[in-house]
Amino acid sequence: MEQTFEELMGALKKEREIIDELVELAETETQLLINSDVQGLMQLVNTQQQAGNKLANLEKERLVLEKRLAGELSFEDENVRLTELIKAAGVSVPAGLQFLAEGMKKRYYQLGALNETNKLLIKQSLGYANKMLSVILPQRKTTYQESGAVKLANNASRLDQTV
Asked: Coiled coil where (predicted)?
């Protein structure tokens, strides 16, 4: 059981490193969005995706270790939370495991908040771009005449198109 806890601790440390990396990337993304750096955003998205894939693989590994621990601690349900495993193990838990788990939880919340901020910045940018497009290239409105024929309204652009 102690060996499994040590393996779990190692997996959690690796996850924490990836989460820290994702938080830094999300902070960079915020700055890139503020500065409207599209090229930087395109490069950043690839890096974020790679880090996310690594985190997903580590999460799978962590869940396998937690299931193994649940079996070693004689839990009937294999889907036990880490905090429950730590409480059940008592003294045999490696020092710092609880602290590491709590720190990761805080970083996950921080990452979620940053992602929400970035999502709002993206929506704001899209709204602005769509508004500018509607000003530059107004939509042609279709109306029906009394005879039933379709008439396209001539909505001239608000910008002078002569060169």
From this structure: 41-68
